[in-house]
Amino acid sequence: MQNSLKQGRRKETRTSELYEIAEKGGTEIICCSLPNACSVSVETPAGGCFIGIDPFEIETTAEERVHLAHEIGHCETLSFYNTYSPLEIREKHEKRADRWAALRLVPVRELTEALAHGINEIWSLAEHFDVTEEFMRKAIEIHRMCGALA
Length: 150
Prior knowledge:
Order of helices and strands: HHEEEHHHHH
Largest sheet: 3 strands, mixed
Structural class: mainly alpha
Low-confidence stretches: 6-10
Radius of gyration: 16 Å
């Protein structure tokens, strides 16, 4: 049942589409060593964006999708901060990037469809949407906070 559901849906953003979104937005993605992070996004003084991804720190396609979507979320929503920003500002910008990512990787319609088909464990939903379990929990919470889920 899960395979037929997965083949029938395909509204969530595929990994290749994430790279296309970045390219269309003028965001350059650079593979580089990031000692304390898997990914990072930076706004340039001219208003452009760069995303750095450390491919040696990312082990699965789910991790790649989550990191990439989150960083694109920062770029698309202009949610940036610096090391001197207060915690509440950082949290606001991180949530904005997560929300952008959740709406693309786990659209509410596909999530409710999966739940209706009995895919209701975090691990199975994460596998179904090819995201991490941690991100799946965030996506569900985001959809609940938006009033899309009970």
